[in-house]
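Pair request: fold both.
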Amino acid sequence: MVANSNSKEMVSSESLSAYNNSMIKLAIELGKRIKAVKVLILPTALPNLRSLGAMRVKNKVVFMVTKKSLFEKLSGRGYQVLLLPFHNLSRIGKVTQAMRTALDNKYINESDPIVCLTGVPGSTSMDTIMSLVATRG
């Protein structure tokens, strides 16, 4: 069982995994609708990758992680992954760091439309989807 930081209730790991998987699918669908160049996903745990494979989105999704073990698992499965330094940041801070890192590593360019999926710092739940225009500012 995992504590959900927003509601303070207990949820099963399977239920949280299904929730995160739904959020990943929604972020990818939003990315398609707005013609996003990339969808940046900031997980703290390994997401269910089976459904992602069926969506054939490896070239559109970039996982932005702070754990080396997560980096190795995702990159070993052929996904685009960038390892971020760990900083105790808010959701917006994490998205800003991810966007700048993606810009620095040429995954996106300034003015590109992008979608970011993140969550509450310290939680394994990804509950925030943002559509943005990439900028260093």
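--- second member of the pair ---
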Amino acid sequence: MTTITIDQVKEIPKEYRRLLRDLERLEYLREASTSVPAFPTDGIKVQTSVMNRSMVISDELIDLERDIDQRVREMHEKEEAARELFRDVREPDRKVLIYHYVRHLPITEIAKIIFYTPRWCYYLRRRGLKEAERMGKE
């Protein structure tokens, strides 16, 4: 099990959003690699050369898939380390931390789930992070 610092925990939501953007890019590349555009030329549709374009897209697709696979594994490790770090944090702070940093829910959604105001959830998150940091130093 890897250990994680509070600063690394705070970076998890950003990394998750970057991962989602890359997954969207991957889906776009998969779509682009299977489509063959046709352009009108003097009223006659003519296919463009797919060979070069598909080879470049295929290479980029493979690289992106490998990168995403590696980052997903790292994300799971960080999530487990964060869960371990939050283990001794009191409720309901721990619940907010788990929902936000492990399940990747925005604070507004967490507030709806646990029937608190978003402002209170922000407070619980801040208090929980301080408590986890204090416990991590001991």
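Observation on the second member. DSSP finds five helices and two strands in the chain.
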